[in-house]
Amino acid sequence: MQTIAIDFDGVIHKYSKGWQDGTCYDEHVEGVFEAIQELMKTYTVFIFSTRKPKQIKQWLLQRIMEMEMGDNPHDPQEWSWGKYGYTCQIIPFWVKFWNKKNVLGITRKKLPAMCYIDDRAVNFQGDWNRTLLDVKNFKTYTERR
Q1: This prediction's pTM
Q2: Which of 27, 71, 119, 121 has minimal CB crowding within 10 Å?
């Protein structure tokens, strides 16, 4: 099965004020959990970030609890994504490939993937002159609004 890597800040977490003090302060990007669910029908998926994986997992857990349970949270040790049909796991540092079906991985490492979904990427098209121009003119989707 092929793997998809998804950046956290700006792609899952809105990140509307930038890094700030390092906390995950913002809401999720609309439609992200449904999109991950759709991707996981065909691919294995992991989240990558420079943040600590535990911080991301806690943020994800809080979002899901707010969306699904309101004021009636349950034990986070037994947490799963309810209606989304997948669970979440921090990828151990020694893992070199992520291929767990229906398990959303979280890591600080750049593991092999078919593609990376990232708001700060320049897609190399085989032409360095074009790439240098793309870098010079680069804006995230939030900066283009």
Answers
A1: 0.87
A2: 71
